[in-house]
Amino acid sequence: MQFVVLALCLAALWLQPAAAQPTPAVISEVPKQPSMQALETFTQTLVNGGGYLGAVTLVSHRGKTVHWQALGYRNPTRTMPMERDSIFRIYSMTKTLVSAAAMMLVEEGKIALDDPIEKHLPEFADAKVWRGGSVQEPQLRAAKCPVSIRHLLTHTTGFASGGDAPAAAVQMFHRVDLSQVATLKDFSAHVARQPLAHNPGEIFHYDGAATEVLSRLVEVVSGLPLDQVLQQRILTPLAMRDTGFSVPVEQRHRVVDMVTTNAQGALELTNTPDTLQPGTMLKRYPSGAGGLYSTAADYLRFCQMLLNGGTLDGVTLLRRMTVDSMMVNQLGSAHIPKGALREGEGFGFGGYVVLDPSRRDRLGSIGAFGWSGAGSTYYTIDHKENLIAILLMQHLPQDLPNDPPKAGARFFDAVYQSAFH
Asked: How far is CA 215 from CA 34, 117, 247, 286, 329, in A?
């Protein structure tokens, strides 16, 4: 009898519903659809005379992939064709994953959005704000309120990392080359020693410092390094097998070269260590502000989880109300300097939020959410249209006359102009 019970238990475990296991980060073959012709024509122009080496584009509508295309090349000598599973540095698109990880800790009651960060990172206690003086003799005053976790998520910390911060305060902040610090702990400790440029919550200033400090806070609260947190809490559950802070050696041939346009208008490799050794870590530490490699198919799975309200293939990472809070404007009364966001946009937790499509330079619905990476990567999640659109390239603009036009607005316009309904 005991044997029969044991056998039945084992059988029950073996016959768990397939939905309980994440499906592979692979999308089935996508038939060519005449309705997507506008998008396909635009993508061709990017790589045929448009100044870009290659691209992968992916569009999902109502949970079904309706477009997935690789065009051009992944190296400047044009000997290696772009593939749909090519691996890209997604830079600031990493921030949305770190924001999601932080919101998991909020759901679990381990942190609260309005917690002063000094509760978890004591080095930030007794914050001071720049009042005047010089780098050698700064004049400071007490901040009106402490920096909170909400401020980190919304880039309203007041950190003097740039923007319209006083020049001397910015100089103090950048006395150390933060790209060369060894750990997130070191990064956070340096930031904590610098005066704020503004009171927390007053001004939106998008940069990497807020997310790096948030990443350190996630490490401290979870008790794990950031790369392990993301692996255990997001990447493994969602079967994002090609996403990480480095690429396994045996898969590095899939990494797309990062190029830029020089003063003569020619494409050339960027002069960075990860270009010379593609697939290696982008910084010395796992950078939550911009350190991940990923593929279009992998990032689609993360976006689909958000679009679904926190669940994908029977795996729940976040509650729907939590995801909704990420995708609503969280800036409140904070001042948004001209050019900090596009007209008609606010900012949620980890990305922009469309407030007024008529004032933007691209098509999209009210409430659409997304972000981009400095190396020409883009995504948007549109709840109203039940739509996800992703464009991945590897081109680092330098604000030179020969830079190709930025592709995000034109890409999203082509997506919405396609008859995917």
From this structure: 44, 12, 20, 9, 21
